[in-house]
Amino acid sequence: MGKQRIFSGIQATGSLHLGNYLGAIRNWVKMQVEYDNYFCVVDLHTITVPQDPQILRANIREVAGFLFAAGIAEENSVVFIQSHVKAHSELAWLLNCITPMGWLQRMIQFKEKSEKQKEDVSVGLYNYPVLQAADILLYDTNLVPVGEDQKQHVELCRDIAQRFNYRYGEIFVLPDVYIPPIGGRVMGLSNPDKKMSKSEEKKDEAIFLLDSPEEIRLKIQRATTDSLREICFDDKRSGINNLLTIYQLLTEKTREQIEEHFVGKSYKDLKEELAEVIIGSLHPIQERYREITEEKGYLDKMLNRGAERAGDYAERKLQMILKHIGLR
Ligand code: ATP
Ligand code: LTN
User: Which 3 state secondary structure label does DSSP give 147?
Assistant: First the structure.
C-alpha cells in the first residue's frame, strides 16, 4: 500500500503568526514523513480581497520561505504556488457548475469576511470554497490538516466531490479533515475571544513568526488576562487559558505538569516564562528563514521544482475529469 496523501493550503495575506504555526504548519512538519504531501501557497485565494501587487509578491515568497524554514522537506513534500499550476483555476470552474449556490451561502467565513467589506465584496470571495475544493480534489487527497476555522470548507469539499461522483462516476477521493486536538484555534492576545489572525488591524493581537525577542516580550506582557490569581487551564478564562495553551504546545508538557509548575507564581512570572519559550522556539526557524532568503535563487529553484511536480499530477487528473464530463 502506498502512503496516504495530504494536501493543505496557506494564504499570502500577510506575515505568518503563531496560530498558523501551531494550528497548521507545525503539524504538517510532524506528519510529513508518514504521508505523501502537497503544501500550497494559495495566492489565488489571497486576491479574493484587495491586495497591493508589490506587497502580495513579497508575501507569497515570505510564506513559501517559512514553510521550508519550519522544516517542510522536499523528500516528503511538494511545496508550490497555486497560480503556477493552471489546473486549479480550471477545475474550480468545472466544480462551480455543479455546486449549488445555497451550499456557499451557508459558509461562515464568507459571512464574517463579507460583513467587513459590505457591498465591495467580490464574487471570488463567495466562490472561495469551490477553488479550495479544486485544490484538494486535484491531488486525490485523503487528509486535509487545517485549523478549526477550515472545517466547514473541507466538509463542503466532500459534498462537492460526492455530488460530482454521483453525476459522472467515481472520480474523486473523499477527503477527511484533520484538526489538531490542541492548537486548532489559537486566540488573539488582546482579544482572546477571537482567533489570532493576520488580517486583524491591531498588530498586538498576534505574535508574528519574524517578531524580534523585544516585540514578543512586549506583546506577551500586554496580553489580556483577568483579575483572578490562580494559574490553571479554564475555558471560561479565555486570556489565561490561551497563554497556557500556547505554553503547553511549545513545551509539550502535560496540563498537570504546567499547573503544578506555576503554583504560587504570578501572571507576570507566567508571561515572562512564556515569552522566553516562544523566543526559543521561533529562533531556529527565524535563523533558517534568513539563510533561505539570503541564498540567491534557492527559493525560486525549490518553487519551480514544486510547480513541476504538482503540475504533472494535476494535469493528468484534470484530463481525466474533462473526459468524464464530455469535454474531451
Ligand atoms: P488569518 O485569519 O490569520 O488572516 P486565515 O485563517 O485566513 O488567516 P491562512 O493563513 O491561509 O488563512 O491559514 C493557514 C492555516 O492556519 C489554516 O490551516 C488555518 O486554519 C490555520 N490558522 C489560522 N489562524 C489560526 C489560529 N488562530 N489558530 C489555529 N490555526 C489557525
Ligand atoms: N482556505 C484556507 C486556505 C486553503 C486551503 C486549501 C486549506 C486554500 N486551499 C486547501 C486546505 C486545503 C484558509 O483560509 N486557511
Answer: coil
CA distances from 212 to 58, 117, 123, 204, 222 (A): 20, 32, 38, 13, 16
Smallest CA separation from ligand 1 atom 26, residue: 19
Tell me the CATH architecture of domain 5-179+297-325: 3-Layer(aba) Sandwich (3.40)
Kindly list the averaged pLDDT for each block of 10 residues, start to end, along the chain of length 328: 95 93 96 98 97 97 97 97 98 98 95 83 96 98 96 98 98 97 95 86 86 98 95 96 98 98 97 98 98 96 98 98 98
CATH of 203-291, one of 3.40.50.1970, 3.20.20.450, 2.40.280.10, 1.10.240.10: 1.10.240.10
- Lookup: cell for 214: 523585544
Length of the chain: 328
Measured in Å, residue 150 CA sits from the centre of ligand 1 at 8
Q: Which residues are registered as beta bridge partners of 8? A: 39
Task: Specify the pLDDT at position 198.
Answer: 76
Residue list, ligand 1 pocket, CB within 6 Å: 10-11, 13, 19-20, 23-24, 146-147, 149-150, 184-186, 195-199
What pLDDT does residue 199 have?
Answer: 65
Q: How far apart are CA 321 and CA 165, in angstroms?
A: 10
**What is the pLDDT, as a whole number, of residue 118?**
74
Q: How confident is the model at residue 120, as a pLDDT?
A: 84
Q: Say how many Å lie between the CA of residue 10 and the centre of ligand 2.
A: 6
**Dist CA 189 CA 243 (whole Å):** 8
pLDDT at residue 116 in the model? 78
CA 289 distance to own-chain centroid: 18
Which pLDDT score, from 0 to 100, does residue 201 have? 64
C-alpha cell at 249: 504546545
Task: Report helix, strand or coil for 321.
Answer: helix
Give catalytic residue positions: 113, 195, 198
Mutate to test the pocket of ligand 1, among 20, 25, 179 (most ligand atoms within 8 A of CB): 20
| Contact between residue 298 and residue 304 where contact means Cβ atoms under 8 Å apart | no
Topology alike, domains 5-179+297-325 and 203-291: no
